[in-house]
Amino acid sequence: MDSQRTKDDEEAIRTALSSLRTATGIPVTMFATVLPDNRLQISAWVGLRTPALQNLVIDHGCGVGGRVVTTRRPVGVSDYTRANVISHEYDNVIQDEGLFSLVAVPVIVHREIRGVLYVGVHSPVRLGDKVIEEVTMTARTLEQELAINCAVRRSEGGRAGAKSGRIMNGAEWEQIRSTHSKLRMLANRVEDESLRLELEELCDQMVTPVRVKQTTKLSARELDVLACVALGHTNVEAAEEMGIGAETVKSYLRSVMRKLGAHTRYEAVNAARRIGALP
């Protein structure tokens, strides 16, 4: 189980580093894993010119990464060796690599810091708020992937320990999705608030036994629209099901796609399933 966890998580981290480099155009991306003693170790990297930072172990509270772990907040420095917000135990290795500016963001899963995501440049360029936002967004996506990996492993462990456990087939999943959508539509027609909340809670329980915490907040109506789209409904059919106009459905879909970074309605459905918002 530990070897599978390592494999799954390492793949998610490598994907995050590559996508971050592509999205920002910044040459160096790194990930540092939190060790059992709360130190950090740079365990994955893209674009380093020398081995100076490869597998480097960083003491608790030291450097940019140490400050990120201590504060649980992003940290950016425009001139590493002169920055007054960090300690300078690792100036030599930073100079050996030739890095100038760094931005680092914590990766937090289930309230526990799992690591630190870095980007850096070798030239005297200031990494502004837009870069920090991009690194933060990538960190949030990585958090979701790591949390999903954890949830899947727990689910598989539970099935392995159950005498009659088995994996549901596609038809059974479609039945659950259809029931989930119908429950949401039914909840919308209930005037009694307490009963409506109970129905919505049942919908949430159908999503997954171990729900991944959503970092992207979708409204109830946005989830209703996605539930209809997940069943293959057109905008007109979704509008009829929900009792609203087709243009309103389009508006909700545009909002959902913007929040989830999706380009099509079906990408939005898949993204919602990955974060545990839909079954």
TrEMBL record:
<feature type="domain" description="HTH luxR-type">
    <location>
        <begin position="211"/>
        <end position="276"/>
    </location>
</feature>
<dbReference type="Pfam" id="PF00196">
    <property type="entry name" value="GerE"/>
</dbReference>
<keyword id="KW-0805">Transcription regulation</keyword>
<protein>
    <submittedName>
        <fullName>GAF domain-containing protein</fullName>
    </submittedName>
</protein>
<dbReference type="Pfam" id="PF01590">
    <property type="entry name" value="GAF"/>
</dbReference>
<dbReference type="InterPro" id="IPR049651">
    <property type="entry name" value="HTH-type_RamA-like"/>
</dbReference>
<dbReference type="InterPro" id="IPR000792">
    <property type="entry name" value="Tscrpt_reg_LuxR_C"/>
</dbReference>
<keyword id="KW-0238">DNA-binding</keyword>
<dbReference type="InterPro" id="IPR029016">
    <property type="entry name" value="GAF-like_dom_sf"/>
</dbReference>
<dbReference type="InterPro" id="IPR016032">
    <property type="entry name" value="Sig_transdc_resp-reg_C-effctor"/>
</dbReference>
<dbReference type="GO" id="GO:0003677">
    <property type="term" value="F:DNA binding"/>
</dbReference>
<dbReference type="InterPro" id="IPR036388">
    <property type="entry name" value="WH-like_DNA-bd_sf"/>
</dbReference>
<keyword id="KW-0804">Transcription</keyword>
<dbReference type="InterPro" id="IPR003018">
    <property type="entry name" value="GAF"/>
</dbReference>
<dbReference type="GO" id="GO:0006355">
    <property type="term" value="P:regulation of DNA-templated transcription"/>
</dbReference>
